[in-house]
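Q: I have 421 residues here and want to know how they pack in 3D. Can you give me a structure?
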Amino acid sequence: MKRFVVPVLLAGCAASPAMRAAETGDRAALATAAHDVTNHEAASLAQVVADHELRAAPAAEAPERVREAWSCAHELDGALAARMKVHDEAGAAAALARLDGRGLDLDDVRDYLVDADPRWRAVGVRSLVRPGDHDERVRALLDPDPHVRRQAARAARDAADPNDLEPLADAARVDPEPIVRTEAVRAIAALAPLPSEEAADVLRDLWPSADDGLREDIALAWARPAVWASGGREALGGVVASSHGPGAIEAAAAVLRHADADGDVALAARAQILRALEQGTRAERLQAIAEAPAERPQLRQALRDAAADDDLQVRVAVLARLAEVHEPRAVDRLEAIAAAAQPGSTVSVRARLALASAGDRAVQSWLEQDMKSERAADRLAAASGLASLNLAGRAVPLLADVDPGVRLRVACTILVAARVH
């Protein structure tokens, strides 16, 4: 039923001054009228604004507008369908967005398999999920164009054909594009059924030559239930006991998320997280903070200890995690940091977003001040924070922002909030 919420709402506020301004593209009038708007009215306005931005975008800007609309492709399927009628880069991106948003079926795009434009051919390749598509899918994994290869790997993930294991392993090992290697590893984790431990062994062979990003994906693949039970647990245990860096931290967190992780593998995983928290680089510490299962007593205590760290970015990240698990005074300490930090600084933005995620209404006035910032990133963060507080209607003035990217991304933030709440 949720997919019909926004269209119904459109009729409810069609006569309002704000809606008339949105429909005509009158940003000045929208900025004036967009006050004291309910969340439901905000969703209606957001759909109209986003629809207009997608349809009116100049050809040079259209691909970026489509990418900005991806998270709310479901709500904007009509505008994306219209953009798809133009046979260019943005049209192909709109087709893929519609597939992800479930506005378009895979069978609807098979005709593009023979398209001369590789971006549109990639759209067609995304449909290669039928039992008889194996050979064509493997050929697409070797296509000269990386867009085609990426969609071939995504199709393999959906097809889950165990016969794809070897070509996917080759793609994960040698493809020059990081995103294709990532998609190949994710596809390997989805293949079923495979002989016992075959997927885990292939991923183990990939680990030594993989970069940090791919190692994180390999760790997550080992942790997938089917792989975990067939060699993944042992592979993760070896990594957390002998490796370091982002991949090993991801592996440790993946182990600790499994309720049946115990014995030496659990001890090694906990030691890996604690070592990263205490001795890692800032990036490694932030990763460990974000992923450490705070319900485990020793890790909870380590987070408490890090809440007094001299590095404010680390301290904010720790307090944000502790606020998630309702640690006493975590919100109060975040408020103090947010009040003292320079507005617009990394520390200020992260503290305010953490408070919004914790449901602390005290941050509302700060977020509304940030909506007036000269920096687009601050304005976008403010909209995200207000949505987290279930106050998406307060972000409506940003639908009249001078920056079309801000207008569209805020519109999507409001639409996604309406979908969730």
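Q: Anything worth noting?
A: The chain has a mean pLDDT of 93. The two ends are 13 Å apart (CA to CA).
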